[in-house]
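Pilot study result, target chain (585 residues):
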Amino acid sequence: MKLFDSRSIVSLAGAVAFSLLAHDALAQSIGGGGGGPKQGPTQSRPTRNKQVGPHRGPGDDDDPASQGPSPSARPGGEPTVQVPQDPLNVPEGLKEKIGTDDSTIPPQPEGETQRSFFPVYDSRKGDYRLRMVPPLYLEHTRGLDPNTGAETPNTDMERLSGLLFYQRRSPKYDADIFFPLVWRVRDRENKVLVLGPFAHREAPNEHDNWLAPLYFQGKRKDGGYFHSPLLLTTSHWNEKSAFTVAGPYFRDRTLRDVDMGVVPFWFHGDNNDLEGGRRQYTLIPPLLYFHREREIDESSFSVVGPVIWESNAKRSIFDVAPFFFSIRGKPETGGVKEAHYTLFPLFHYGTSPEKNLLVVPGYIRRVTPTSDTLITPFYSNATTRNKATSLTLAGPLLPLFYRNVDTDVGYDALGIFPFYFGSSSPKGRTFLTPLYGKVESYNVTRTHWVFPNITYTRDTNGWETDIHPLVYLGRDKDSSHTVIAPIFWDFANSKGRTTVAFPLYWRSADNVDGTVTQVAGNTLYRERRVSGGTDWQFHLLPVFSYGENPTGYWWNILFGLAGYEKAAETRTIKALWLPIQVSGP
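Predicted structure:
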């Protein structure tokens, strides 16, 4: 909706400017007329006047016939271009590519300017008229009859009275505005009326009614809306969707899919699918009730407190959680003949074409076409893959006898606990007794264990010997370690070595940057690689220190009580910790 278009703003601005400028200057700015002499061009070189737009007739100053021969008749054969009849005309094809300004702005008025100053200022030129009594009244009109000044069907008139009342009448736009309370505007077939907080709009197939902030209502061709903050209500709808909230009630629709409810008491949803895929649900939290239906798989699911039942084409389920659970198959509708019953924790029984399972306290039996498993506190046996593997356990609670055989992979294990366990396979073997054990993976690793805590391991990368928890010796490729807890630690690899003999000796060497740090009792030795050689220093803490580097040497007594340093050509002595340079630049 447009209350003021670009023409209105330009016209009002022009009218105000007109009241401030001289009348002759205004007449010249809008195209000239009989009101005064014409002004010459302000260009820096002579120009030729060529008429643009409609011709005024013979004898005019701008008539091309009065200017002499046409440009194409110039002597000398200079190339010329014929001036088009309408230079401002933009071809339709070009207009689509580059765009154009508002083509509805009327051309400049033509003709003589007629003025009167009493009782109001009145100026008319062609189809244009301006009336005003500044600042109380201002009227701007276009589209008048150029000869009589009478209104025509194309007249566009707008006026401002008392600085508060604006009025416009035109074929496409009308307005009556008493600022800021009353607005009546017409934009073609769109009509708006505003009276303070009340607003009404009408257009083809739609309308709006607002009384802010109490309610907002509107209708469209395919929907509408209603909002009322005081009623805690909002609603909008169209052909594809709708949404409503009224206090605790809500309803949401997308095409046929609908969800609704009263929070937090009741919720319901239905997709209303008419092609075999319908789904529904209902939830009532205070009653611990939930129900769901799905048409595509002919299933339903319901919960009422601890009672749960579910049904589909293949099976039905009924549970009373957490004690009773049951499942029954439906072979008549595509399921299998099966039944499962559980009375927790006392009993479970299940049967189907593929397996049978019975569980009671102290007894488990499971049978399938390829396996048989029996588990009791005293004897257990399991066979799988048509008896290709077998496992046998005997003993009260913890097994005393263990036997496991897998003929497919060549695995055989026997255990008589706690005296013996042995196993063998194509990959390796195991031998364990209370005093000695051996675990071997052929051509990969071998580990020996000797009572109570000695282990020796050897593999393709090295070896390791441990006497837990005191001694740990080993080598892995280029790394080695020696630990005699808690007094000696030594770790070495290609990058460096760290040795600690607690509490008197500590040494760390870094082969990458060539640094060595060593502490032995109250002595400290540090060494590092520098340009031109090695920088090292020795400290007999806290009495004496001595060091050398590629450019000289130094010594200190009591960290500088007395000392001497030679660095290149510089000689420095220390007395009472103060350095005194005795020679050098």
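One observation from the pilot: The helical segments are 6-20, 23-29, 92-98. A full batch analysis is planned for the follow-on phase.
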